[in-house]
Amino acid sequence: MTTALLSTAGELHARVRRGRRAVVMTMGALHEGHATLIRTAREIAGPDGEVVVTVFVNPLQFGAGEDLDRYPRTLDADLKIAAQAGADAVFAPSVDEVYPGGDPQVRITAGPMGERLEGGSRPGHFDGMLTVVAKLLHLTRPDVALYGQKDAQQLALIRRMVRDLNFGVEIVGVPTVREEDGLALSSRNRYLSPDERRTALALSRALFAGRDRHAAQEALRARAREVPSTHARAEALSALGESRAAADAHAVATASPGGPAAVRAAARQVLDEAARFAPPLELDYLALVDPSDFTEIGDDFTGEAVLAVAARVGTTRLIDNLPLTFGAAS
């Protein structure tokens, strides 16, 4: 299959459409995470559909002092990766093609959710992101668009925009792809020196520590529920030769400091240790949030949540997250 390289919306609109069109939006510098998105899009579109990959470094979502100028631009390599993953076309427009009148005066506003976490650290970032996503959705006219769950707040805001503004497109989130050592794949990973990369692994280790603490708590709670708090329970535990351990487990499982607070504490311990590395990890935020609005969850929260972290190692800023489920929903 030959993958077409297109630079104008006119070229894209002239293509004969058969079946569903699935779009994967990127800023280029493609890696295996993007390839996973493209392969998933290929499965969704099917053999009769079409997969379009956009490659556009959007100046609106870079703030002052951020890495717009040095952001990697590797179109030839991107085209090869996209083709190998099953893309029918790569749409790589110029800035003038996307913003023909210069910076747009009318833009999408992300609202309160866009001011939290990433939005608090990068003011205006999500307004610029949503504006270009809206434009690219109009320019590519997909039936379905796919985004990585690594950018969890971005994905949540795109879903909210599509719902609130009645875009006729299905939004699909694809799980984060990680390297063997756990580091989430990112185009910015190439900026890291070997020592910086070792420090950067603290992001994923912190998330895994929080996840493991949560899993242990849920297992203890399940175990406590299995045996009634009666004399029969005590006899059963004694018969297993673990009455003290089980009693401790029951206490831990039902103690109020557990749940979200314990998850945050387990993750923060890893990050605090990494702050003493050479080079150090400079934490931006660690948050455990409700994915519907990205506000912090309370200790009585039940349902889906996102454990998210952002930090700087050297001059490189990285983000990562993991989904968790609390309470009855788990």
Automatic annotation (TrEMBL):
Catalysed reaction, written as an equation: (R)-pantoate + beta-alanine + ATP = (R)-pantothenate + AMP + diphosphate + H(+)
Signal peptide: none
Location of this chain's protein in the cell: Cytoplasm
Annotated catalytic residues: 34 (proton donor)
Alphabetized Gene3D superfamilies for the sequence: HUPs, Pantoate-beta-alanine ligase, C-terminal domain
Any GO CC annotation of this UniProt entry: cytosol
UniProt entry tagged with the keyword Lipid biosynthesis: no
Binding site for (R)-pantoate: 61, 154
GO aspect biological process, one term: pantothenate biosynthetic process
Top-level taxon of the source organism: Bacteria
EC number, UniProt record: 6.3.2.1
GO molecular function, one term: ATP binding
Additional record remark: The reaction proceeds by a bi uni uni bi ping pong mechanism.
Subunit structure, interactors included: Homodimer.
Protein name, as recorded: Pantothenate synthetase
Gene: panC
